[in-house]
Amino acid sequence: MARMKSILVALAFLVLPLVSSAADHEPSRSRQAAIVEATDHAGQKATEAHGEHHGLPSSAVPVFRIGPFVISNSMLIAWLASGILVLFVQAATRRMELIPSGAQNFCEWLVESLHDFLEGILGHDLVKRTFWFFATVFIFILATNWLGLFPGVGTIGWGHYNQAGRFVVDEPLLRGGNADLNMTAAMAVLFFLLWTIWAVQAQGVGGVIKHIFGVQGDAQGFMKLFLIIVFLVVGVLEMLSILFRPVSLSLRLYGNIFAGENILESMMTLQRWFSAS
Q1: Cα torsion 246, 249, 254, 259: sign
Q2: Burial level of 94, CB count in 10 A (0-12/13-18/19+)?
Q3: What is the C-alpha separation between 199 and 108, in angstroms, rounded?
Q4: Do 168 and 184 form a contact (C-beta atoms < 8 A)?
Q5: Domain ranges in the chain?
Q6: What is the pTM of this model?
């Protein structure tokens, strides 16, 4: 199970950037209270029909501090998912058997299936260098998203009572790990750095430049000059798209999970709306 141990080590490094990223975005409690109060006052007329305000906060809420580090509610879910994965794998591989069964069989099936799938896309040589990262990200994102569906995530925390006497959660204790832009941005930036290293290792600096700006075809004369200009412009556009990939990757995952949690919260209130009408 050397591959699974590599995945667990990578999982630890994957969660570490969340601590520093959350420390840069810590709002004070007084500022949060002012924002919530202003939001409630501005949206009071719009929510009188249903008696409460719905929606997950757009950013993660700090829960407590460990020295200079700020721990947010999304980090708790990320750490919980990491802890569950580590404990499960440790329990499954404690007594290795030649003919696997139970949890060991499931772990080996998961790792081998991901390896074969990535090998068909990346090739035999590249998958050796990249499997640990892609498998880690896939398993971690899957576990974090599933934990975000458990009851209590996003619905238990600090809040206030509205005019109808119902308790509305303004700052949830737990929040989906991928519903935090810090989390998705950390994974996207890490992938971008590793992708750059792998590309240079595989093709060299000159090979990467040739792949982006190199002219394709065997044209001669004026046509060759024209193709050089065309592929130069295309290469510049390709460089811009490469530099924009961390932004698109982080926003795509964050937007999907954040919107999904807000939709689930809205669906839970449909029964109250129908009963009130």
Answers
A1: positive
A2: exposed
A3: 29
A4: no
A5: 2-276
A6: 0.72
| Residue 39, token pair as written in the block | 């939001």
Task: Copy the structure tokens of residue 141.
Answer: 């994102």
**72: exposed, middle or buried (C-beta count within 10 Å: 0-12, 13-18, 19+)?**
buried
AA letter at 160: H
Task: Give the number of C-alpha atoms closer than 13 A to the C-alpha of residue 263, restricted to the C-beta side.
Answer: 6
Read off the DSSP letter of residue 129.
H
pLDDT of residue 275: 56
* 77, 144 contact by CB (below 8 A): yes
The span from the CA of 229 to the CA of 231, in Å, is 6
State how far the Cα of 28 lies from the Cα of 34, in Å rounded to an integer: 10
DSSP labels, 202-244: HHHHHHHHHHHHPPPS---THHHHHHHHHHHHHHHHHHHHHHH
Residues 163-214 pLDDT 10s: 877 777 778 888 888 988 989 999 999 999 999 999 998 888 888 888 888 8
- 124-147 vs 102-122: helix crossing angle, rounded to 10: 130
Q: Are 186 and 18 in contact (CB under 8 A)?
A: yes
The two tokens of residue 140 are 């971690």
Distance CA 252, CA 195 (A): 18
List, for residues 241-276, the tens digit of each pLDDT value: 999 999 999 999 999 988 888 887 777 767 666 555
Q: Which residue has the higher pLDDT, 137 or 165?
A: 137
